Amino acid sequence: MKRMSGCVCFAVPRKLIQHLADQSDDEGRALLQAQIKHSTGLRGQRSGLSAAAAHPEPATQPLQRRVYDAQGRTLLPGTLLRDEDDAPTRDAQANQAYDNIGIALQFFKSVMGRDSADGRGMRIDTSVHYGFRFANAMWTGEQMIVGDGDGAHFKGMAHSLGIIAHEFSHGVTQHLVKGGLGVVWPSGMPPTLKGEAGSLNESFSDVFASMIKQWHKGQTVDQADWVIGEDIFAPGVGKAVRSLKAPGNRQATWAQDDQISDYRRFSPTDDAHKASGIPNHAFYVAAMALGGKSWETLGQTWLKGFDKLRARSTFLDAAHATVDVAAALHGKGSKAHDAVKAGWKAVNVMV
User: Fold this and answer.
1) pLDDT band at 33 (very low <50, low <70, confident <90, very high)
2) Residues 100-139: pLDDT tens digits?
3) What's the pLDDT score for residue 227?
4) Which of left, alpha, beta for 156 (phi over 0: left; psi -120 to 50: alpha)?
5) Residue 241: predicted pLDDT
6) Which residues are catalytic?
7) Which structural domains are found in the chain, ordered by start?
């Protein structure tokens, strides 16, 4: 069987989970550390999936969603709770996941002109209530899984449009970049995201999650909060998982956030979430330079630019691709073209 080009991509980085585990009592620490171990194992379980799973048959309806109840277990997908066009269920998290996936699907379809993750209308399956007090959400390579939170640090994920949109966007990247953007298969180890390409993969999800949030709220770039996961923490734990405006600003995110926004600080050993701050901030700078609504100009620039990338593309590759697309769409020397160049220069990827 062929390997899939997708990976198990998590919304909440391992470092944040480990940090909270270290601050917990014995029971809480054991729970979170077990989840880290399980998440690593889940990557391994996906290594045998058929490549055909990434290319489902086109759907016949405008949107195609199914939400399942994993019932606190890890066997997927679980019991079907809500299919497309079904009335809301009594399960609030199922309804929240259904609605948020619908917003992400509609954004890509009506604004980006892309029909679902694969561009051909594939159905998006999501399992809520995954695992025991599971404090994360993820794209597995073929579906989304959403935990209820551990109760002490995280209050759940299904209600968060930013988290759901981030994970859905990993599905888009999987189908956009042949071979998987930054997906590596270490010998004898599960697949993971590595290097500049892996950070670009994470950044694509943060950037599109931000645009989806702003589009849904009708916000301009000045009105937006430019953070991801601001609504998943229990009180007093943190303010957001990541900030595109100020990567690594612990006053805006969480106590040990180490994201970087300057390419001169990049190391090839950096975690993909850490270094994703570089392209994240490049997008933010470009959006602020343009003003108005981020998705109206930069949405297609980023989508078409990333469509030119390859599995091992670098930050500079992404910079050239998005700058070239901006020139093609809006003209060389246009405000959009100059804004995209300014974004990549601000993070020292372009000089």
Assistant:
1) confident
2) 999 999 999 999 999 999 999 999 999 999 999 999 999 9
3) 99
4) left
5) 97
6) 167, 273
7) 9-184 (3.10.170.10), 194-346 (1.10.390.10)
Three-state secondary structure readout of the chain: CCCCCCCCEECCCHHHHHHHHHCCCHHHHHHHHHHHHHHHHHHHHHHHCCHHHHCCCCCCCCCCEEEEECCCCCCCCCEEEEECCCCCCCCHHHHHHHHHHHHHHHHHHHHCCCCCCCCCCCCEEEEECCCCCCCCEEECCCCEEECCCCCCCECCCCCCHHHHHHHHHHHHHHHHCCCCCCEECCCCCCCEECHHHHHHHHHHHHHHHHHHHHHHHCCCCCCCCCEECCCCECCCCCCCCEECCCCCCCCCCCCCCCCCCCHHHCCCCCCHHHHCHHHHHHHHHHHHHHCCCHHHHHHHHHHHHHCCCCCCCCHHHHHHHHHHHHHHHHCCCCHHHHHHHHHHHHCCCCC
Q: Are 122 and 109 a contacting pair, CB within 8 Å?
A: no
Name the least confident of 16-25, 124-133, 144-153, 175-184. 16-25
Interatomic CA distance for residues 267 and 166, integer angstroms: 24
pLDDT of residue 53: 33
- CA dist 299 and 305 (Å) reads 10
Which pTM was predicted? Answer: 0.91
From the list 87, 88, 70, the residue with the least C-alpha distance to 79 is 70
Q: How confident is the model at residue 58 (pLDDT cuts 50, 70, 90)?
A: very low
pLDDT of residue 43 exceeding 60: no
